[in-house]
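Hi U.,

Before I forget, here's the chain from the pilot set. I'm dumping it here mostly so it's searchable later in email.
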Amino acid sequence: MFNRVITNQTKTMVLLMLVFTAIILLFSGLVYFSIVNFSHQRFYELLKIRTATIVQIEKSKDHLDLPENYILSNLNDEELPMERDYVFAVPADSNFKKISQEVHIPDYFFKNIIREGESNYNDEEFYYIGQSFRYDDKDYIAIASAKNHYVVYYLGFLKRTLLTCIVLSLFFSMIFSFYLSKTLFRPILKITGKVKEISSENLHLRLESHPDNKELNELVDTFNDMLNRIETSFETQNHLIGNVSHELRTPLTSIMGEADVALSISRTADEYKETLGIILDEAEKLDKKIKALLMIAQTGFDGKIQKMDKVRIDQLLWDVIETLRRIDSRNNIYLDISMLPDNPKKLKVQGNEQLLHLAVANIISNGCKYSNFQQVKVSLGATNTDVYIIIKDNGIGIPEVEMNKIYDPFFRASNTNNYEGYGIGLPLARNIVRMHHGELIVSSHENQGTTVQMRFPNFYSTQKGEQAKV
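Structure:
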């Protein structure tokens, strides 16, 4: 629930504040403990100098013979805050309890001095440094102690200063985090607002690029590319609906008109027979168009639902040419085999023979039809990876302004009114070629002719591609 309510901008701001807070606390602690440690070391150095001075003074005396458990104190002027100095002889039994009770210093401190020659100690208020020294074959201990005013008073001021700085830093870090998160998300919010404005009525709108922001520009470019595809898809769909509606309505209108005329008055049997013949002819046209639509829809799916075999394209071409010549003897087709490869295995593709036959036959048939049965040249060639079929005619061609619609089902170029056809062959052929992972390219010039290039990956490159995916 919390994650649904809170925005990414707020999350970013909180995260930045947490990071800033952690860094500020870390450095504040580092500064505080560094100063405390330096203060302790510096004050011990002063006490050490004071202790060395006491030892020199005592050693310079002509006579030093302190009785056991007698403490010589306040030997010098007070140079450090509340300084207290002590000198006493080390008890013969090394028992410091009496001295410890008198000066309120734990006895292990004295034992450390005897064992190491020098030691330090501090309680809540006072700092101590003691040194052992020898005079007239007798061991003594000299101790200098004082109150560290810097730690007691100045560190309190340091704490208050650091706390004030932390509070101010957190305040400014909050402002900075808010500004930074808002600056980072402003372009995204702007894109979101712009995207919300785009609908099916204004698909022409595009997102603006953002200078000096490479990542965001990549997002904008990707989204604009997607809009281009969607807009193209919408236009194609609109063309398809318009073409299909027109093509299906024409025979239906003819059927309804003939039936209406036939029923309007009594007619002879021959007239009814003629009318039914017209209705049957129009119904057959309608049936062919619906079947063609179904075929396009089926070939729009991926090729996995189709049975795929190894097909030799040269044999397929011969079959297609023979079929077309049998259907119409005027079809004048020349097969150019000058580019055939030495190895016939390069002409094999993995595909559905019936669909490939349909696609190639449609293209060659169109070439024959729209060139008024002039010779159509079909060339076959292959590389190590692909098989190429190039179909070239010298027919009426396609107007340049209509080239972007040639793959729309039922679209027919404006110069084809004198030729029968439904505008199905080319989009159907392209779908079949795509099913076989191939490519269909059309180049045409009005009144000069059309060239269609079909490329299919050969069987062995297809196998390698599938093995690579595995």
